[in-house]
Structure to design on (214 residues):
């Protein structure tokens, strides 16, 4: 294994170790959404009970208001009949009814204020869940892209460097083998060697030939 290959596998091993220690962020996000949806559902049930009580109070107030109006009619009728004593008794009932109405109306206003605050909180929680789901879709695309990039790097790392190194090594071995073979052929080319020796014997000595003309 070459130095480059050893370095690559060392880096890859370190990166894999780090990635293995990290949890899938999308799984954490899914769990967060499930938790929030559970809270939202529980809050809806609790809020529905509170709002239901408010509606009951509202209906009771309407009934008390009608009773008060009826008391007024009865009081006037008693007075018209000259029955002042009966009118006083009915008036006492009306005053008790009005007192109860005012007390209940105060509770109703307070409960209504809390109910509106609860509905606002529920809408905010629902919006938060919606926003997180939107972000999750975006994060999923980014996460998948990162995973794909990681796999591509792993494929490249596992094949290209190793295969390239192996390919170069094979080519180098093949070239050296051919060079050695050619060298061996040259050593065994006796005919060519003999021809060279004969040629050297028959070559004219130019210096000797030149002396003939002196």
């Amino acid at each position: 294994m070459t130095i480059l290959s050893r370095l690559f596998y060392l880096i890859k091993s370190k990166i894999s170790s780090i990635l293995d220690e990290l949890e899938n962020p999308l799984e954490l996000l899914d769990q967060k959404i499930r938790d929030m949806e559970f809270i939202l559902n529980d809050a809806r049930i609790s809020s529905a009970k509170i709002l239901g009580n408010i509606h009951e109070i509202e209906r009771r107030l309407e009934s008390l208001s009608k009773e008060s109006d009826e008391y007024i009619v009865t009081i006037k009728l008693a007075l018209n009949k000259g029955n002042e004593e009966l009118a006083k008794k009915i008036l006492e009932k009306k005053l008790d009814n009005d007192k109860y109405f005012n007390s209940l109306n105060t509770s109703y206003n307070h409960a209504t204020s809390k109910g509106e605050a609860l509905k606002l909180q529920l809408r905010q929680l629902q919006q938060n869940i919606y926003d997180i789901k939107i972000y999750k879709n975006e994060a999923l695309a980014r996460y998948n892209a990162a995973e794909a990039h990681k796999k591509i790097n792993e494929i490249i790392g596992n094949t290209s460097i190793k295969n390239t190194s192996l390919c170069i090594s094979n080519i180098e071995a093949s070239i050296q083998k051919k060079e050695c073979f050619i060298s061996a052929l040259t050593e065994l080319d006796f005919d060519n060697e003999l021809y060279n020796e004969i040629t050297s014997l028959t070559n004219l000595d130019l210096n000797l030939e030149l002396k003939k003309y002196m």
User: Anything to note?
Assistant: Residues 84-187 form the longest helix (104 residues). The chain has five helices and no strands.
